[in-house]
Write a structure and sequence with these properties.
The protein is of the alpha/beta class. It has a domain at about 35-75 and about 110-225: Glycerol-3-phosphate (1)-acyltransferase, CATH 3.40.1130. Helix content is about 40%, strand content about 10%. The protein has 7 helices and 7 strands; from the N terminus they run H-E-E-H-E-H-E-H-E-H-E-H-E-H. The protein has helices at about 15-35, 60-70, 90-95, 110-120, 145-155, 165-170, 200-225, and strands at about 40, 55, 75-80, 100, 125, 155-165, 180-185. The chain has a 7-stranded mixed β-sheet with strand order 1-7-6-2-5-3-4, with helices on both faces. Helix 3 (about 90-95) links the parallel strand 3 and strand 4.
Amino acid sequence: MAEVPEDLAPRRFSPGQRALYLALRLLALGVTKAWFRIDVDGMRNLPPSGGYILAPAHRSNLDAVLIQVVTRRQLRLMGKDSLWKAGRFWGWVLTSLGGFPVARGTADRAALRTAQNLLEAGEPVVLFPEGTRQSGPRIQTLFDGPAFLAARCQVPIIPVGIGGSEAAMGKGAKIPRPRKVTFVFGAPLLPPAPTDTGRVARRRVQELTSELYTAVQDQFDQAQSRAGQPVLADPEA
């Protein structure tokens, strides 16, 4: 069984890993755009450089793959640590594709430290704020992790709606179906400024999480509508 590395942040991609990523992205780009008729809106909201957090709605295992296809910069994504335990080779592949492990259902300080180091190194990181795949048109309660890291690293959060991915490959599905998948990238949410002590109050972090919830629901509604999928008519209902 392969060991799960505690901190992947300081490691740069090797030439082999970079080549693998570029080759797989090129292959996936052609296949997924044709199969899922991918539609993207709001790319102007993605910073061209520096670290930032992408916070997408999460309804399918396809989300982590497709978001890598629609953006030009190589993204770093948290993945459940059991994937890295499948073997050293698969751990190398997952890391090559930008992944790093997190122990789900726990306060994984190593994963948070990795994400923090990546952001401080100027890399974009994908954090699914609902924590795991959900179902249906309503965004579920968000974790404070993305807001906490945004405040700690002073980087923006980009709310992302991914519409149609559940119809293409929802929970329990083994084979993706040819359904339209739409991405809507919202306007960046800026983190609260730290106090004189260099810290951000927990209340301000929770306020940012609340703001992120509203923004993700809005982008998700837009993305679902563009993909021809059910939209939550009244988020407060």
